[in-house]
Specification:
Two copies of one chain form a homodimer.
Chain A lengths: L5 E7 L3 H13 L3 E7 L3 H10 L4 E2 L3 H4 L5 E4 L6 H8 L8 E4 L5 H7 L8 E3 L1 E3 L20 E4 L7 H13 L3 E4 L2 H27 L3 H10 L2 H10 L3 H10 L1 H24 L2 H20 L4
Chain lengths: 295, 295
């Protein structure tokens, strides 16, 4: 077996992502010699202990990061600034701080300023998830065949980037490095806007007159059902994502709304060519995804 | 085995739905003694013959309906008025005309006026589908456990309604009867609007600058991927559905757009409570669907 990438990995947050990393690290042995789990409540840490997915549990984030050569923030991104402030004075020299947040410019803005000289910061975004959350939701295969995007700021230590890359590759992900601003635009359209739309349409249905609403639930065709699958996600996590990728998300929503209005106009005036063209473009994108093995 | 519901069933169109009904009728034997398939092209009919899913094939719809005690329109709803005009003079006395279209007021408007005295009209909407189309796409299990909604106009012969109900129950569906206008509003929100949104967001992504578009395809997270699954549907069928459920669809889109703008405003101004509330409502609807066994 290869040597572990890290001696001591501190996971700040053990929800779906954090607990999956913990499970993988414990089962493989080549990611970290010791896994420390931190969570906001004793109840969560007791559950982590019961599940046996960490070597140590610690309720105080400042103590959890002591002696850790890698600290991975796995909390909702809105909590990052306060967490960074808490843990920064306790980081050991040379420690690598990384995260798993879905927004990257905000993470660099919120964490970067607190980190002491001599520590390294490698923001990461494993693109994997389910609609479930909490320490019970994690599983070893979560990252298999999925992307993990790293967005290290200019000047980040190459060795630190390389170690985080190895960690995620050992978790089963394919790693790609990109600029944080570019990352935020891409995820705004592929993930954040679809979630905003899914949450919204569920609310629109819920606002219908009571008789119709009951039948919406009864007759949910595949279209609506797929939307609710997306919509069944963690409220705090998504609130933080929306607020922390605001500019890109609002731009993509504005583009989408213009396009939806153009489609509405085509429906109103019977512009058959326009409608068919849009449906065909949907098929084309679908086919491209299938060709890229993403569908 | 029970007696067949019909002596001779004429399917006008043998795409996903029509060819599934044909397969079921041939395999069960208690739906129709003879299945006649009609399509617009000889190529499709040759394929139907090769697949062995009909007893007879006939390129002329007027001849296909001769001696049929049940005629089922399985073409895109935009073709119904012309088809009704063609077949009406050739319907046998007492024949039941039915259909499988996703819009019901338009179908009653387009078919009703052409049908001669002494024939019956029972509009139907089996709520089942996949993203595939054509005679090869059909399969025997398509309607198992799915809803089929009947919207017979006031005064429709009870025996005719009962026979169409039996046909769909033998296809595996659960039948419910409702008013056509109510039907159109329900499907506008559960199916037509989600499809319009899915087609639109694929176009929005396709319009992005080339570099971003490539990465959209590369990194399509589960959100976007689910949308493209919906979007990979038949362009003519969906064009016709949008145009023939225009009023209900535009109303639901207007409601959705208002709600999306309210969400955008909450994101812009950091209204955390509003955002969390919307995400929680999505979860609630999701849970209601699970409780109803639709998820």
């Amino acid at each position: 077996m290869a040597d572990p990438v890290f001696e001591r990995l501190a996971l700040i947050g053990v929800g779906l992502i954090g607990s999956s990393v913990a499970r993988i690290a414990r089962s493989r042995g080549d990611i970290a010699r010791v896994v420390v789990a931190n969570a906001r409540t004793e109840a969560t840490l007791n559950r982590v202990a019961d599940l046996g997915i960490a070597d140590l549990t610690e309720i105080d984030p400042a103590r959890a990061v002591e002696d850790a050569d890698c600290v991975m923030l796995c909390a909702p991104v809105g909590a990052y600034a306060a967490l960074a402030q808490q843990i920064a004075p306790h980081l050991m020299p040379g420690a690598i701080v990384t995260d798993v947040g879905s927004t990257k410019q905000s993470v660099i803005r919120d964490i970067g300023p607190f980190l002491p000289q001599g520590t390294h910061f490698v923001p990461a975004h494993p693109m994997a998830g389910t609609e479930f959350s909490g320490p019970d939701a994690g599983f070893i295969e979560l990252f298999q065949g999925r992307w993990c995007l790293l967005t290290p700021p200019t000047g980040t230590d190459d060795r630190a980037v390389s170690k985080i890359r190895t960690l995620w590759e050992r978790c089963g992900a394919t790693v790609s490095i990109m600029d944080a601003a570019h990352h935020d635009r891409v995820v705004a359209i592929v993930s954040h806007l679809p979630h905003l739309i899914a949450f919204t349409i569920c609310g629109t249905a819920d606002d219908l007159a009571d008789e119709t609403r009951q039948e919406v639930l009864r007759f949910a065709a595949s279209g609506f059902r797929d939307f609710t699958r997306i919509a069944a996600s963690d409220p705090v996590m998504w609130r933080d994502i929306f607020l922390n990728n605001r500019d890109a998300l609002l731009e993509m929503l504005a583009r989408f709304t213009e396009d939806a209005q153009a489609m509405a106009r085509a429906v109103r005036w019977g512009d058959t060519t326009y409608i068919e063209d849009k449906v065909l473009r949907g098929r084309k994108i679908r086919q491209a995804l299938i060709d890229l093995n993403q569908a």
